């Protein structure tokens, strides 16, 4: 039995010239699942919540209270709440979906051997990079909105003195570093957890992998929280500095 480890996702099929990878396919399923759940709960809202509605309301209220504790109450919290909460819910569900039993049994053969239909969504760096760009670009939009375009550009381009010019370049490097650090943190942890789980299941497929699976479950939740939290902190810091 061969253990196949690939950094890039496998292409399952093409829609025209658009390649559909196993990570993209899994992300579509997760997205549709979340949309169905929230639409269903929205249509079945009751004055006395119970069951799924109760769980979602607790999640929403807890998330909003946490965001208020970081960025402050009022308009800023209400505006940033949808983005940060959506990122957290999507990442945590996508990470936890990997642990649904029986996924390895679903494969497709394209002449190159069996390809797994399902793979951890966040182990695809392309998708993680897109989410990171959304977070960082949103941060820059907030900065421009608060300070104005000229003051915003003045942070990076300042010819008044060599020191201020150098500090502007460092500021620009720091903004680019946010993309690298935020994306590689999520991608690296999820991909490493996936590889570790595969190796342990390959070497000892019974009881030994269980502790590593529990550790992976914990990492799935923690990394989702860290990604959403850092997005919130970036926006909060920019809004305070630029104000």
Topology:
Elements: E1 11-15, E2 18-21, H1 22-43, H2 51-71, H3 75-97, E3 107-109, E4 114-116, H4 125-147, H5 149-154, H6 162-203, H7 209-242
Antiparallel strand pairs: 1-2, 3-4
Give a short summary of the structure.
This protein has 243 residues and is mostly helical. The protein contains 7 helices and 4 strands, in the order ββαααββαααα.
Explain how this protein is built.
- The termini are far apart.
- The protein has one domain.
- It contains seven helices and four strands, in the order ββαααββαααα.
- Helix 2 (51-71) crosses helix 3.
- The relative contact order is 0.13.
- Helices cover 70% and strands 6% of the residues.
- The strands form two sheets. A two-stranded antiparallel ribbon has the order 1-2. A two-stranded antiparallel ribbon has the order 3-4.
User: How widely separated are the two ends?
Assistant: 60 Å
- How would you describe the shape? globular
Give a short account of the largest sheet.
Answer: 2 strands, antiparallel
Distinct helical segment count:
7
Low-confidence regions: none
Please provide the ordered H/E string of secondary-structure elements.
EEHHHEEHHHH
**How many domains, as an integer?**
1
Rg, rounded, reads 21 Å
Percent helix range: over 70%
Give the DSSP E fraction (strand runs of 2 or more residues). 5-15%
Mean pLDDT: 82
**How many strands?**
4
Structural class based on helices, strands and sheet pairing: mainly alpha
Biggest sheet, spatial arrangement of strands = 1-2
